[in-house]
Task: structure prediction
Amino acid sequence: MKIILVGYGKMGRLIEKRAVEKGHEIAAVIDPGVENKLSGQGARVFKSVDAFEKEEKERGTPAECIAIDFSHPASVERNIRDFAERRIPLVVGTTGWYDKLEELSGLVKSKHSSLLWASNFSLGVNIFYKIASYCAAIFDNYGEYDVAGYEIHHKQKADSPSGTAKTIGGIMLKNMKRKNKLVWDKLDRPPEADEIHFASLRSGAEPGVHGLIFDSAVDSIEIKHTARNREGLVYGAILAAEWLEKTTRSGKYGVFTMEDVLG
Ligand SMILES: NC(=O)c1ccc[n+]([C@@H]2O[C@H](COP(=O)([O-])OP(=O)(O)OC[C@H]3O[C@@H](n4cnc5c(N)ncnc54)[C@H](O)[C@@H]3O)[C@@H](O)[C@H]2O)c1
Result:
C-alpha cells in the first residue's frame, strides 16, 4: 500500500515508522509545518496536496495512494475536499470537525470517493464503546444511579472535549432513555435529571483516559480506558487504511467508520 501522510506530528511520525515496518510505502508527507525535504523514512515532504500533485504529474507517475490525516481540526475540511476531488481514499484521525461530518460525507459520496473516520482508532476504545453501551442500557433501569463522564489528555491537544468523549456521550444518550442532554462546560448549578455531565482535563503528556462513573448513594461503579501510549491508535489507523484500500479496490466507495473495519 502507498500512503500519503497528511500531518507529520506525533501520530504521523509513528504511523510512518510502523507502516514501513509492515512493508508499506510512504509516497509522500504533507505538512506545511515541516521544513525538511525528506521525512524520517526518506519520503518526500510537501507543504500542500497541490504541491504533491504537481510534482507527481511532472514525474509522470499516477498516484494510486491512500491518504491518512492526523493534522489539525482547522485543516480537515480542506483536506477532505482536496482528496475527495482527486478520488484518493482518505482515513481521518484528526478530531474536532464533526459538526461538518454530514456535509462532508455528502461531498465525498457525490464525488464517488471514500472516507473512513474514527474519533479513536484503538481496538481497546472500540471495545470500551461496546461495554459502555451495555452499562448504559443496564443502568437506565436503575434510577438511583446517576452517570457522569470524564476524559484526560496531554496539554498540547487542540480540541476539547475529545472526539472519543463525544462518541461515548452519544452512546450514553442512545442507550439511556432517562438522559437527553450532554453538558461539557463547567456546571455552576446542580445538573438536571436528564443531563449527563462530562468533564475534560488537560495536563502533561497523558495519551488519553476516558471514564464513566455510575454513582448511587450506597456505591459507585466506574469503567475506564487508559491508553498507555499511541501504539494502539497507530495500529488501528494502519489497519483502517489497509481495510479502506482493499474495500476501494473491490469497487466499494462511501463513508466508513471503525465499526466497519472491526465488523
Ligand atoms: N482518531 C484517533 O484515534 C486519534 C489519535 C490521536 C490523535 N488524534 C487527533 O489527531 C490530530 C493530530 O494529533 P497529533 O498528536 O499527531 O498532533 P500534533 O500536533 O503532534 O501534529 C499535528 C501536525 O499536523 C500538522 N498540520 C497542521 N496543519 C496542517 C495541514 N493543513 N496539512 C497537513 N498537516 C498539517 C502540524 O504542522 C503538525 O505537524 C489531533 O486532532 C488529535 O486529536 C486522533
About this structure: The helical segments are 10-21, 49-59, 76-85, 101-110, 123-139, 163-175, 231-249, 258-262. Residues 2-121+231-262 form a domain with the Rossmann fold fold (CATH 3.40.50.720).
